[in-house]
Specification:
single chain; about 260 residues; alpha/beta; Rossmann fold; 8-stranded mixed beta sheet; AAA_dom; P-loop_NTPase; Chromosome partitioning protein ParA; DNA_Partitioning_ATPase
């Protein structure tokens, strides 16, 4: 099982869209995928058609109990894609976790009890660097960073990388950067091209070749409770996420070997 946290402390950069559509693409390629929604807004859960009535247990219960992951899993309409949904209870989890033992390792402890049930675990993080995101980074083997092509992108990225270094030093020395995915890419905008060039100059091969374009169908799909890959698999956004998933799989040789076996 390989665990990937999808994180960026800046909101509106495409974290949840990436989590939903990469999860769908990876499941379509034959992997057993679990998506864990730890964002109190619960957009990943809604975007996969998981209504509030189906969220009898959630990632909140998993974090507070440090277990019971299997009881919180909900099957989605996408074959081989499961989700641990989020509820508004997560809004208070940051405060509650402070008083608990192993408060930074609660999600890691829960995942260890279910190791082997899925090939890939994706964690959709909130747009902050609080205890929810720290739990995700401690549990993760690697980090995937969606990065919007805008002026402040590099500044926000440097803050995130500093946090990753602190997580490595204190909690999870094996945490790696799987890749940076450029999102909301608009080829008509010269600033987009400049930001892309700057990011690639600084980070090199860490940046995925595939870019995710601005695409109306990507924005429409969640309102229908569907991944864009199912809502409109021929749109440019869906095609980009399929290409990104193929790139991601190449960077996960261990997972490939396990599935082949």
């Amino acid at each position: 099982m390989f665990c990937i946290a999808i994180a960026n402390q800046k909101g509106g950069v495409g974290k949840t869209t990436s989590a939903i559509n990469l999860g769908t693409a990876l499941a379509a390629s034959g992997h057993r995928v679990l998506l864990i929604d730890v964002d109190p807004q619960g957009n990943a859960s809604t975007g996969l058609g998981i209504g509030h009535a189906l969220r009898t247990r959630s990632s909140y219960d998993v974090l507070i109990d440090a277990g019971g992951l299997d009881q919180a899993v909900v099957h989605t309409a996408v074959p081989k894609l499961d989700i641990v949904p989020a509820t508004v209870d997560l809004s208070g989890a940051e405060i509650e976790l402070v008083e608990l033992d192993q408060r930074t390792h609660r999600l890691h402890m829960a995942l260890e009890q279910s190791r082997g049930e899925w090939d890939i675990v994706l964690i959709d993080c909130p747009p902050s660097l609080g205890l929810l995101t720290i739990n995700a980074m401690v549990a993760a083997d690697a980090l995937l960073v969606p990065l919007q092509c805008e002026f402040f992108a590099l500044e926000g990225l440097s803050q995130l990388l500093s946090t990753v270094e602190r997580i490595r030093a204190r909690f999870n020395p094996a945490l790696s950067i799987l890749g940076v995915a450029l999102t909301m890419y608009d080829r008509r905008n010269r600033l987009t091209e400049q930001v892309s060039s700057d990011v690639r100059a600084v980070l090199g091969k860490v940046v995925f070749e595939t870019v995710i374009p601005r695409n109306v169908r990507l924005s429409e799909a969640p309102s229908h409770g569907l991944p864009a890959l199912i809502y409109d698999h021929r749109c440019s956004g869906s095609e980009a996420y399929m290409a990104l998933a193929r790139e991601l799989i190449v960077r996960l040789p261990k997972v490939e070997a396990e599935v082949a076996a």
